Amino acid sequence: MMSRVFVARDSCALSVGADSVAQAICAEAALRGQAIEIVRTGSRGLLWLEPLVEVETPEGRVAYGPVAQRDVAELFASDFLRGGRHRLGHGLTEQIPYLARQQRRTFARMGLIDPLRLDDYVQHDGYRGLRQALAMGPGAAVQALVDSGLRGRGGAAFPTGIKWKTVLEQQSATKYVVCNADEGDSGTFSDRMIMEGDPFLLIEGMTIAGVSTGASQGYIYVRSEYPCAEATLASAIETARAAGYLGADVAGSGLSFHLEVRRGAGAYICGEETSLLESLEGKRGMVRFRPPLPAVQGLFGKPTVVNNVITLASVPTIFANGARAYRDFGLGRSRGTLPFQLAGNIRHGGLVEIAFGLTLRELLYDFGGGSASGRPIRAVQVGGPLGAYVPESQFDTALDYEAFAAMGAMIGHGGIVAFDDTTDLAQMARFAMEFCAIESCGKCTPCRIGSTRAVEVIDRIRAQHNVPANVALLRDLCETMTAGSLCALGGMAPAPVLSVLNHFPEDFGLTAPSTITSA
Amino acid sequence: MAPDDAVAQAIALHADRPGGLLPLLHEIQDRLGYVPPHCVPTVAKAMRLSIAEVHGVVGFYHHFRRSPPGRHVLRICLAEACQSMGSRELLDHARKMTGTDLHGTSADGAVTLEPVYCLGNCACSPAVMLDKQLVGRVDAQRLADIIEHCRVGA
Predict the structure, then answer these.
(1) Are A416 and A457 found together in one domain?
(2) pTM strictly above 0.80
(3) I need a labelling partner for B42 at 20 to 30 A (CA). Which of A65, A288, A489, B88 fits?
């Protein structure tokens, strides 16, 4: 009997040896004369178990991991092709608590299918959302998205439906849909997982955006650090085009939508939407003044929908299952689910898609299993390099956009990076400003000069040089950057610094927090 | 491939695309490993831009190099998640093993060290990228193996 074995082709799995494991399984099966088919899938997101090997059994898929090349012969000896017991075994994948406790909506297909097989995608509910959106027509489709309560998942959390509505209302023969796939925040990888593990989902979401707002050209701006994602998307776009889901007549609707991948070039600032548009136009990624909003004058001066990967990938599910079904998840004004990403010094790092409202502590301990080093988790940085360092006293805050904003932190793109008690947070505060100085586009003074001056001031504090005066100066500088910067890079780079001053003053050699301002 | 041929081909492929300058520069660097400064006037003319504009774009983006790298490029992630798992120490090892600092190339021409801020492999930190290959859960031994591979390989 032919056994089906699943090994991820996600770049995280590849980075820890998935290819050599898959090859070893093939070789061992040939040696033993056992017929197997290896299916390369997206990753389940149980990343500490990668390379994860799954085997199809009558009861469901059984998981083994992390599997090294040298374990393969032993797995065969344990009859793993029929779900046999082995020290690396985890039983049925769907029953692994990490996965069973999630509410996978956007990531529902992740790890189940070969990401480049369109037939598999369609059989697993793919393109139902597009058919629904086409049947509704642009006005009703955009209203449905407003009703779903979906907010931009890139970090800014702006209501997506309102953005689409603005673009729909513009009178212009040319409009664009741009996908922001410049996932530069440390601790985040959900965009990459979608692009590598379920690319048709993103393509479908962008197509819905196009036909619902009257745009006929789309661009996916992928960062240059993601070569696998770029290659997978390019291949999936070609397949969708050949099957009539992209091109001059989308799914027989008579509407056209063309899609192209563009590669970034290692500039963090290009994750800021106006800077991204400049980059797509072939220029330096300098932030634009607003207004005009990109929805009114965006790419090449035309009305443009700019959305993050997860935002666009959430759209097909919303249309397939209805706006209300999505809205029923969540807390307060944070509706639906968010794929959180557990990263850094964490035992069980990976992707956790769940409704808003969970606490950080639940994520870090119930899912994450505590630190990887086994030492106490001292701080977590939530929301990327511009996010605050959250102390343990705040781990019980519910994950909700507003609740985090109220304590001077942000959920952003859902990245959560854990640090143990050996971390020098004053050094991390310095790094926040150093990073801002490296990545500043240079357009506004508070960000361009302020970040460099902040590094110098932090160095003086860390050297215990005239500490009270320099701390006052640092806080003053942070206030200037927060209030005076043109975009979120300079405007939010002070957040990690202030959080360290307020919650971890001892790392700066201070006995108590100086005057606590915001964050 | 001769640099001038690579530039001519890149121009033929991308000069007429909307916003084609970035794809064009990528094409040149993919073929040559860097964007030779002497090609900037040629690119500018083909794109109907000033030399300053093209120079400005090349200089703005960290990805574009203006001098040839070593036979391999090793990018070490120095973003927060990798720092939480010891990437600073890893960088120190890399410096010692290659005898060069960030943005430099080892004396034998085998490897160029570059910083990178996030490779999207933050649950398997620390991560590095060797040429286009991502490597996760890197420790000092694994790093030594990678650098050795650069030295003996072509």
Answers:
(1) no
(2) yes
(3) A288
The one-letter amino acid code at A84 reads G
Assess if residue B114 is contained within a domain.
Answer: yes
- Give buried/exposed letters for A263-289 (b at 16+ CB in 10 A, else e): bbbbbbbbbbbbbbbbbbbbbbbbbbe
Residues of chain A with pLDDT under 70: 513-519
Contact criterion met (CB < 8 Å) for B123 and A346: yes
Closest CA to A3 of A45, A47, A61: A61
- A299 and A335 in a common domain: no
Q: What is the pLDDT of residue A519?
A: 46
**What phi and psi, each to the nearest 5 degrees, are found at residue A256?**
-110, 145
- In chain B, residues with a C-beta closer than 8 Å to the C-beta of A422 are none
Position A129 scores a pLDDT of 97
CA–CA dist B107, B100 (Å, integer): 8
Residues 6+ apart with CB under 8 A from A135: none
How many Å lie between the alpha carbon of A421 and the closest alpha carbon of chain B?
A: 10
List beta partners, residue B72: B111
Are residue B47 and residue B86 in the same domain, yes or no?
A: no
**Is some CB atom of chain B closer than 8 A to the CB atom of A342?**
yes
Structure-block tokens of residue A410: 């942000």
Task: Give the pLDDT band of residue B154 (cuts 50, 70, 90).
Answer: low
CB contact under 8 A, A185 and B64: no
Comparing CB atoms, the residue among A14, A225, A345 nearest residue B120 is A225
**pLDDT tens for residues A204-231?**
999 999 999 999 999 999 999 999 999 9
Domain limits for position A53: 3-100
Nearest to A352 by CA among A409, A405, A399, A420: A399
Buried b (16+ CB within 10 A) or exposed e, A71-82: bbeebbebebbe
Nearest C-alpha neighbor of A203 from the set A170, A161, A168, A232: A232
| CB spacing of A266 vs B116 below 8 angstroms | yes
Q: Is A40 helix (H, G, I), strand (E, B) or coil?
A: strand
Asked if residue B65 is part of any domain, the answer here is no
Distance in angstroms (rounded) separating the CA atoms of residues A191 and A106: 11
Sign for the pseudo-dihedral over CA of A105, A40, A46, A56:
positive
Contact A186 B127 (CB under 8 A): no
Q: What are the Cα distances from residue A313, in Å, to A15, A53, A99, A255, B88? A: 25, 26, 20, 21, 35
| Of A210, A291, A201, the residue nearest A255 (C-alpha) | A210
Domains: count for chain B: 2
The answer, yes or no, to whether ipTM is higher than 0.85 is: yes
pLDDT value at residue A331:
77
A contact test, residue of B25, B62, B80 with most A CBs within 10 A: B80
Which position has the token pair 């992209």? A246
Q: What's the domain range around B87?
A: 72-152
A341 in reach of chain B (CB within 8 A) = yes
Q: Please state, in angstroms and as integers, the Cα–Cα distance from residue A500 to each residue in A397, A404, A491, A507, A510, following that order.
A: 18, 16, 17, 8, 11
Which residue in A has a C-alpha nearest to residue B24's C-alpha? Answer: A282
